[in-house]
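Consider this today:
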Amino acid sequence: MKNMVVRPDQMPDWMERVAKLFREIFQQLWRGFLEPGKGLSLEQLQLFVEHRNPFEVAQTAISGRFDKLKKEWQKFYKQVFNLDADFPNLTIPAKRDVFNWLIIMLQGLTAQKLYDRCKELFGAWRWVDKSLDEVLDQTKSARNPANGTCAIWIRDRVEADEELKNKSANDLKQENIQGITLEERLLLELFYWWKTKKHLDIDNRTLCSGSRCVGGVVPYVHWRRFYDRLDVRWSYPVDAYDRLRSRQAVS
């Protein structure tokens, strides 16, 4: 392979091409941050720098890991819901750095069903007397379990994302950051308790910014230590403070 030689008279065009490529890379990385799976991830860029195919290697790694995670979720659904779950046509979204928890939401699981199971296993409270399924406005949900089984990646943390503190649901929508839904957050609580017999959001609250209730308010979930139970409450879409934090979803 011949070495690339750039003559002085070619420098302006060459530098302009290089600058355009770098701008495109940064734009792709930024898009990958805002819309995971639709741009470049840091993992893919690292593989490219190492002269490896960033897409084939990453997909192979995800496929191998999914086999193990799939069996774990099948075991969870059998033991917690007595369901024989299978995911033959499930699409796993492209994974990003630090998004290491996979949530597989089975079709047909509703917020009320998940809440009821939480209440049976370790105690729970909600702010309304009627079913959560009647409260949620599924036309504004980021992902609706009624439409089919789906999967998302989230950060592997006990507490909701610190990066998203002081950001309201409206802020996240404007910044195009996908958030966890109420169903996914309740399922995550069940899954984490099943694995560890511990709970999430001991100090903070997960803003379920991927969901909306009738009337426009946004549900949030946290473990209330004083009462030893899981609480499901609501906030206004403009509410933003330190302890109220969403969990970013890669879908």
